[in-house]
Design a protein that fits this description.
2 copies of one chain form a homodimer.
Chain A: E1 3-9, H1 14-26, H2 42-50, H3 53-60, E2 64-69, H4 71-74, H5 81-101, E3 106-111, H6 124-133, E4 138-141, H7 161-170, E5 174-176, H8 188-205, H9 209-212, E6 218-220, H10 231-240, H11 246-249, E7 254-257, H12 263-272, E8 278-279, H13 302-308, H14 314-328, H15 330-338
Parallel strand pairs in A: 1-2, 2-3, 3-4, 4-5, 5-6, 6-7, 7-8
Helix pairs in contact in A: 2-5, 6-7, 14-15
Chain lengths: ~350, ~350
């Protein structure tokens, strides 16, 4: 079984974007649209998935995607808590409907109604609804709800502990995932995403967070940002800071996905990061949709790179494709087992 | 000949730090210390270099270092233009003295008196003094003088053009190098430095800067941040943005150093980035000073990784060690030729 732990609903029917545009426009004055004003039929949803993500999953040979709302559309910096709360509820419900329409192919991960300067514990009702009512197996946690201004405390700060307590209670990991950058310095998918990955890893490394939460689990997407490429630097910095070896200090809690869009990058990842810390993902359909003229295949068809790796054994591949995800996402494992899988 | 294009004076006599502390303290009220109050003798300078950088250069086998003030001490976010102007002048003069004491082993690169919100053209007098009077061959340009708040425009903005005009006029490249992060989200050497490298590359990629300045040259340090590891992502993003191939679009102007502190990282760099775009560097003595228990050698002894590479030919190594630096730093080439080298 091949589980892609990182997919976003980037192909939602246009009515969703129209609704959001009305909501954003209302912030300048006027009535916000009601959630009930958004109408997307099951047929529309089915088509949006079948023609896009599902077609590519079938073509590329992946079975199940851990599916969450479009990351760049979370835009937690827009409006305040109410804005994000309504928007998150809408986006998560759509994910739930997709997972209900295609129960064997998609399982949900929630976006949270984060808002800059607002206590993260305000996200808990939405988080619990998604886990308990919708059967979601993870959350996406944005370490920078300001959208590129980085005004929140580091992820190691007690500020975030209310979320972590719920993650532990419900047995769900968080993917660390920022959203659109509204800082003109940072291109969203070419800089802000990768920077956030590197930043989060270093926040974990410099902290004792996993002493407080020994079972807390984070997936760092986009292959861990700059981290595996600079693994020697991070090992050396941990040593300077008198931290334990990274294998003890962070790798029981931190995992990297395989959203690295060329063979040498995946080869490096597989070489320096222990196999048990690597989870298959493609972020399809995402930031990079084209065909690589050098390979003749889609950049984000990351399964090809893993299959072509000369470093990984068959057992390694099975761990990356399935075993690790079932370990890191225990609710996913339970859901699969309930189906006899 | 082996040229290390990235070394900072991280081992300056303590009097320098004491002077700076007095200057910083004076910002809260009181008289700033005068530059003339800093007294460091030639013997002290010689000892600071001989016991540290020079000893390691001899031990590791590098001949010449392009040497600049300590990056994390630039701290452009502290005080205003006057603060940075006095501090830069002091730091650059020390570099000039080191280069004068060891003319065959060190050649200068300038820090600039940048300050958040201040027009970069205020840096030109210091830049020109360093090039014309001191014989420096490059500058370090901080894309984020705010120290982790990223309040300046992207490097592609006309805001920076006065600096670029002088770089072209004098034939000097800039190393893109941030300083200390005063944003608690970003660890200085583990996140902020690498993020800045990735950010700058993406700013270049999304812009037409090199149409305006076809001969402008930037060195992106720390192996280019996350860029080589995600080379497929960047090629794919350029393609989505309808930009030319990266070889045409940025690689005539952008170069990566080899400050990547493990063998797999250097192997990836050498595999995906054209050899003519790679410049030898170690950033010794810098962020990562320890010995890697996995190799038994210093993490930042990057020459070992280049020598051990099975991808690079002898000609490739010569280009990385010398030829490329002489091309990217034409004033360095001229200085060496004047010595018959």
């Amino acid at each position: 079984m091949i589980i892609d732990c990182h997919g976003h609903f980037t192909t939602a029917p246009k009515a969703l974007e129209d609704w959001r545009n009305r909501q954003v426009a209302s912030l300048a004055g006027g009535d916000a649209p009601k959630a009930s004003e958004l109408r997307i039929g099951d047929d529309e949803l089915r088509e949006a998935i079948e023609k896009n993500q599902l077609a590519k999953m079938d073509e590329r040979g992946s079975d199940l995607t851990i599916f969450s709302p479009r990351a760049s559309f979370m835009a937690h910096h827009i409006g305040g808590f109410e804005t994000s709360a309504t928007w998150s509820a809408i986006c998560n419900e759509l994910i739930h409907r997709v997972a209900t329409l295609f129960p064997d192919r998609f399982i949900g991960a929630a976006m949270l109604p984060q808002s800059p300067g607002v206590d993260p514990k305000t996200c808990i009702p939405e988080l619990e609804k998604c886990v308990q009512e919708y059967g979601f197996v993870a959350i996406n946690l944005n370490p920078d709800p300001s959208g590129g201004h980085w005004t929140s405390p580091p992820l190691s700060d007690r500020h975030w502990y209310p979320i972590y307590e719920k993650m532990v209670e419900h047995g769900i990991p968080a993917m660390v995932h920022v959203s659109t950058s509204c800082n003109p310095c940072f291109h969203t998918t070419g800089a802000h995403y990768l920077n956030a990955d590197t930043t989060a890893f270093m926040q974990f490394l410099t902290s004792g967070l996993f002493r407080d939460f020994p079972t807390l689990k984070f997936v760092i997407p986009h292959g861990g940002g700059a981290v595996p490429y600079h693994w020697g630097r991070f090992r050396g910095l941990a040593q300077e800071l008198k931290k334990p070896l990274l294998s003890e200090h962070v790798l029981k809690n931190v995992f990297f996905d395989t959203c690295v869009y060329h063979q040498p990058g995946i080869d490096l990842l597989a070489k320096v990061i222990p196999v048990e810390n690597i989870l298959f993902a493609s972020e399809m359909i995402g930031a990079v949709r084209g065909i690589d003229p050098e390979s003749g295949h889609h950049y984000d068809d990351t399964k090809r790179y893993i299959d072509a790796s000369t470093i990984l054994s068959g057992a390694d591949r099975r761990a990356i494709y399935e075993g690790n995800a079932r370990r890191v996402y225990p609710r996913l494992d339970r859901a699969l087992k309930a189906k006899g899988l």
